[in-house]
User: Fold these one by one.
Assistant:
Number 1:
Amino acid sequence: MIELKNVEKSFPLPAGRQWVLRNVNLEVAEGDFLSVMGPSGSGKSSLLSVLGLLDSDWQGEYRFAGQAVHAMKERERKSFARDHVGFVFQHYHLLDDLTVAENLDLPLSYRDVPSSERRSRVADILDRFSIVAKKDLYPRQLSGGQQQMVAVARAVIGRPRLLLCDEPTGALHSSQGEMIMDLLAELNRAGTTIVQVTHNPDYAARGNRRFELFDGWLKTAA
Ligand SMILES: Nc1ncnc2c1ncn2[C@@H]1O[C@H](COP(=O)(O)OP(=O)(O)OP(=O)(O)O)[C@@H](O)[C@H]1O
Ligand SMILES: [Mg+2]
């Protein structure tokens, strides 16, 4: 489904070039669940930004379902990402001025989904994530774990083929972390391809393939 060929990213700095991704080659099959580990600053979030089509400032080739992402213009890339990718950010990135239900509706509002269908999908996902009681609350009225649940719900409400999760359990207690991981496993069983960044070896082991990043070099992990 996904193929990266010699993907490289760097920033020019006065002291020389700051490398972020180096010669990254990766193939991801439909239904894979990848775990990426690595020290802080090793390029994990940068790799997810490339995979999620949030960043286009890199060199190399990226094919997604046969489409050449590296050749896409900005508009095309953004609409492709909206249609195919869900993103759970390292920090939840919920909109503070919108309620839980409004946050969940947002990705659908960008995608020409009819309003009756939007309402029913929001209701379904609130139910599935056991957050119906929170639907009219604002993010600041939720615990960290609940905010992360909403962030995952928002990432999957558009039924993306690819779900990217940047330390989705980083700020959570272990029981909340388990809940998020169970949810990811369930989405994966239902066919969603997942790439997660995690610092937790037990959570990394939930993936079917494990990788490590060091200074921008991606290696298969044992
Ligand atoms: N605008 C920039 N200019 C220069 N270097 C940058 C810039 N943005 C990011 N970097 C560098 O890119 C490298 C990778 O950052 P990235 O956020 O991908 O790391 P990470 O592995 O996700 O770390 P963490 O575990 O702390 O989230 C870091 O060394 C960072 O300093
Ligand atoms: Mg990061």
Number 2:
Amino acid sequence: MDGIKVRDIAFSIVQVPDLELLEKFLFDFGMSRAALENDTLYMHGAGSQQYIHVAQKGERAFIGHAFYADSIKDLEKLSKLESFSDIEELSSPGGGNKVSGLDPDGIEVQVVYGIEEREVDIDLLTPNPSNLGGKGKENFKRINKTKRVGKPRSSVIKKLGHAGINVTDPKVSLTWYNQHLGFIPTDIVEVPNTDIYAAIFARCDLGDELTDHHTFLIQSNLGSEGKSGLNHISFEVVDIDDVFLGHEVLKEKGYRHEWGIGRHFLGSQIFDYWRSPYGHIYEHMTDSDVFDNKKEVEKTSIEIAAGMQWGPDITNTFGNKEGV
Ligand SMILES: [Fe+2]
């Protein structure tokens, strides 16, 4: 198998009947419109990604995810494999090229290269410094200055952080994503007394370069009544204030809260999960672990994976078939 190693996740793709309704939610969640063309809505965050979310008009469905390749040669490589299409030019904002294919569960996988980055406002992406207290000037990053975080406002999204899918067999899917896109496991969640994996938290293989603890979560569809599809989409925000500010805005607007605010064990990030008007789960998160490709895989329990270091218990609806 002559696959590639993707650099990161690029965008998620859903399909909904009312793009205006979804755009309102995504705006309140912290995104802005990049373009609306050919019945397709492209939304960006505050980071350099031209867009981080794509919604096409149609019957409610989850379509798939796109990942960044490092070069056009990588797209050429994939296009030679049976699982992927020929290279196509993108007519969406920022241009570029893509190949597309289907994973073992029929979930669409796009790999893109050459999409121009958007200009960013560095000030917007720079966290307001925090004072740590105690003694010693080095503990104080904000001296003779007040901290004002701009309430009320939506979260500032740095990038699409990671995404999760529910699948028939996480082992089979990991093999596929490893062979085609280079994903490697960080944490494997075992079902006790079986050789079944409940979930695999997988990361990009960037060699010595750092990458997120998980860019892709591959979870068993046993929790979604055997239905494969979306588990959740996660967006990295600037800092913890952004998680809480976003929470207040979404609550005020009457959106359905799913789970949070808390701090996960696997990935260590502070999380907050919401449902879109179409039931898909969207996460705000910050302060995630980062690893290079030397970190050894670990095996862990469902309790740890579904638990949190602090925060409310996981809901019994998280990851269910409503969101797929
Ligand atoms: Fe997540």
Number 3:
Amino acid sequence: MRNQENILLEVKHLSVEFNGFQALTDVNMKIHDGELHVIIGPNGAGKTTFMDLVTGKSTPTTGIVLFEGVNITGKSTTEITRKYHIGRKFQGPNVFDNMTVKENIEIAMEGYSSMTKCVFFHKSAAFKDKVSEILGLIDLYDYRQFMASDLSHGQRQWLEIGMVVAQNPKLIILDEPTAGMTADETYKTGEMIKRLKGEHTLIVVEHDMDFVRQVAEYVTVLNYGQVLAEGTMEEIQNNDEVIAVYLKED
Ligand SMILES: Nc1ncnc2c1ncn2[C@@H]1O[C@H](COP(=O)(O)OP(=O)(O)OP(=O)(O)O)[C@@H](O)[C@H]1O
Ligand SMILES: [Mg+2]
């Protein structure tokens, strides 16, 4: 349920300007704990920029980012990942090609376990169980001994989702996770993301409207750096302004 009590992330009056270009203007958004929140909008609408501001990659000109009520505006990407547990997957896969699938997940997990200072954790049964669980979640258990370079484009994207999950983030941010995927891979990615919900809160940017319909609980539409509309998938699909600027070609 969306109510005032369970807001995980809130941005207030967020604006950013790059060399005179206003990329975001007065964006207000609330992400509730445990929800799967999809952001849609035309190319250049400011979706990736929004993620950059939440994860500390860019600093807003005005406005604030609150995570669990704490003002994290202007904090470094490292601090936001490690201390506040916000994990992000960028557009396009980004994995270690010269390692196996399993090693990629282990590396991501070790980063997390060294942060918790649990020295023996990485050799423990709990660690191995967690690695197997994540490999299952991303449909790559049978491929765990494959080199990452031998995976398909879609599988590499899943591996990177697994690497984000391995860091045990409270909030997972995914930028166009189905880009370049086949229809079958896109559908599987949707089911994967739905499995992550509940244990994690997710913000997902996507253009593929079949995928958005498959997963979205709540949708925000950005256009020219501003929030054009927000609501349930049904509300968004029936919003005349959204249809006019974004959905008419769908
Ligand atoms: N660091 C930057 N410096 C200058 N301009 C930037 C910077 N980051 C983003 N922009 C501009 O801000 C606008 C919004 O870009 P952004 O990448 O956020 O759009 P998007 O909604 O993610 O689009 P797409 O769907 O194509 O990925 C674009 O016009 C882009 O060129
Ligand atoms: Mg983008």
